[in-house]
Amino acid sequence: MELTPTTPSLAPLLQRAPTFISVTSGSANASSPHKNSTSDASSSTNISDVTHTSTAVFTAPTEAPTAAGKEAFVIFQMCLGCLVTNVLWAQTGRSRELVVSAGESVEVTLPRNEVELNAFVIPTPLEETNYAYDWHLITHPKDYSGVMEERHSRTLKLSKLTVGLYEFEVTVDGEGAYGKGYVNVTVKPEPRVNKPPVAVVSPKFQEILLPTSSTFIDGSQSTDDDKVVTWHWEEVKGPLREEKVSADTVVLTLKSLVPGNYTFSLTVTDSDGATNSTEATLCVNKAKDYRPVANAGPNQVIQLPRNSISLYGNLSTDDHDSLSYEWSLSPESKDKVVEMQGVRTPILQLSAMQEGDYTFQLTVTDSAGQQDTAQVTVIVQPENNKPPVADAGPEKELTLPVDRTTLDGSKSSDDQKIATYHWKQIKGPEGVKIENADSAVATVTGLEVGTYEFTLTVTDERKLQSSDTVTVIVREERDQPPVAHVVSSPPIALPVKTAVLDGSHSTDDKGGVSYLWTRDDTSPAAGEVLNNSDHQAVLFLGNLVEGKYSFTLTVTDSKGQSSTSRGTVEVKPDAYERDLVEVVLEVAVSQISQRQRDMLLRQIGVLLGVLDSDIVVREIGAFNEYSTRLVLLVSGGPGRPPLSGRSVAFSLRNKLRKQKNDFLIFKARRVDTVICQLNCSGHGECDPFTRRCVCHPFWMENFIRAQFGELESNCEWSVLYVTIASFMIVVAIATVVWGMVCCCKRCGARFPDQLLFCCVPPARLKPMPAPTSSALMHSDSDLDSDDGQNGVPWKEQERGHLLRPQNGSLRNGQGPARSKKQREELL
């Protein structure tokens, strides 16, 4: 079966790939289009909706295709896709999408900067129609300056391309057909052919004579087509020494040379890694015994605009006679321009030197005609000139009839020398004449009332310029009273104790005013005027206290006219006044050094458990002749208020009491808050002088707690309760004493003999006479007697035996029981 193409232009393409296709009847299957072409996705998704169409089936070749076969196969795929698409779109009546290819990406390398881009479209246009082409540049380098020709044709011509990446889009439009294609063009820079550097040393050969043992070799004249990156010096040949010379500097400096011949190699490397080497020879001669020794001094380096220098050959020596000197340019410096003075003296004066290297030769001759020569190199480097600085002087004010003044620009400066000055008027009334306008100091005449501005332009020897402007104000001759104006100081807060009142803004038409500051009667008396500033424009105040200060400024001119203005300074209390802690130390303030102060703060920080950097010293001064007052507060950390002064003082007192007050390097006599903060138990007020509580009526101090507890004054006890308690204690003590007395009496009644013996001294016991009663029974008087019988005291047992009845009967002569007498009750 033969496949009929949708357009006549497809037949030749299909004939180029006959081995890759066979056509059968059925549904259409085709490969995807070329990667640089565009296709409509809806065409592939709607192919199944079309029936009774031809189907192209790919048949893989039995042998590996050749290059031509691959190209034909790709073209065949594109054609087949377009064929199927055309058939489908023709049957559905929709717009066709063209397959557009702008070819593969193109890379060119400068100096080639022209490229032609061709667009390929499938299917080809019908004979009676043509496609419309439109090329667009999507991306390009920043410095793009190329030219695009024939943008609306199939072939785009590009020229004058610069280095970078270009992205082009081509759109193809036909009757009922549309497509896009993309292509990249990369322009690479022209490869640079590197040339190796050229190593140059100066001087190539030099000879020095001891005692001159130092010199240098210059390699800065080495060149390269791009840039010399590194210089490397190596000692190739030389006398036997401990260490060979090696350096990576532009100029090789040699010191402590010993006699001998040296060869040094300089290797320079450029930015591409290419190297080049050269050698320099140095001859160091020994000092001879009989010949003179020429010494032209060390090599010198100067920088323009300095173009003069002195070479000293007076270090040349001879063993006997004086020497004659002769200076000359070395052969390698014959083409140099220089002025030489004193060529036959030990000191050569050089001037008018230009940039470059100069080599001078000194020849010394002794009386015997023996000669010696030495060379010295002077390198003149280019100058590093800075522009001048113009200074036209301060602003001036004149009062008629004075109509002339001088303009002084002599303070203008330059690192070398100012060549010219020029004054010019740029503002003000006309008719002014400037005398000596091209000098540093000019004179201006013919001034009138108004404001003038004059510009001074200075130029140095290198034609660099700088300008400055000065203002001249000319006023009429009128004597107006001065105007006092005071700029008050903003409010300050303790511990800041200084302030400034500025009266410098006071004005007068002629100037020359005097100032007098006076303190108002309502201002605090404390505070000092510093440096006698009460007679100056600016008043400086110190040692201020809390309150509002008011000062009156009186400004008086030369005619006695005056004006007044008032300024105020408000001193607010310290925001952290209640957090300040006062420590009184037993040491004179003059004996405390900075190191001891820092050590004391560290010790206090250890006691409080904080860093010494958290302790802020507000004041340190004399408390009296023998003690020091230290005022501090403890910071609570960044963004936090300081610690409570009362808690800090309480904690520090307790820690010092536990440490027996010998922990600090100085003994602390007192630790308390600066402001007395005792609450006095809510029944009193804190006395700021004595730092003790003044209790309210009917309240008193708990001396037990104040002396043995927290050691703080208080008002805890009520006088009424203390009185009642004292009375009860007295009653209790009296009761106890009375009870003890009663107990003693009762004990005496039971043991009278012991009580008598205990209570009556032996000297008071008198012998009693023998009883005269002959009664058989003891009488009452006998029983009542303490002396017993026959002067012998009764024993307790006997006394009780006599007084007690036995077996319920009475002894012979004993009467009935009776009540005891009062004396017996007491005993």
UniProtKB/TrEMBL annotation:
PROSITE patterns hit by this protein: PKD
Keywords tagged on the record: Cell membrane, Glycoprotein, Membrane, Repeat, Transmembrane, Transmembrane helix
Domain PKD: 321-381
Stored CDD domains: PKD
SUPFAM superfamilies linked to this entry: PKD domain
Coiled coil: none
Subcellular localization(s) per the UniProt record: Cell membrane
Any GO BP annotation: neuron migration
Record field: transmembrane: 719-741
Pfam families with a match to the protein in the record: K319L-like_PKD, KIAA0319
Lineage top rank: taxon: Eukaryota
Region annotation (Disordered) ranges: 24-47, 770-827
Biased composition annotated in UniProt, kind: Polar residues: 24-35
GO-annotated cellular components: cytoplasmic vesicle; Golgi apparatus; plasma membrane
Residue ranges, compositional bias (Low complexity): 36-47
Record bears the keyword ATP-binding: no
InterPro entries: Ig-like_fold, KIAA0319-like, KIAA0319-like_C, PKD/Chitinase_dom, PKD_dom, PKD_dom_sf
PANTHER family reported in the protein's UniProt record: DYSLEXIA-ASSOCIATED PROTEIN KIAA0319-LIKE PROTEIN (PTHR46182:SF3), FI19480P1 (PTHR46182)
Protein name: KIAA0319 like
Organism: Takifugu rubripes (Japanese pufferfish)
Lineage of the species this protein comes from: Eukaryota, Metazoa, Chordata, Craniata, Vertebrata
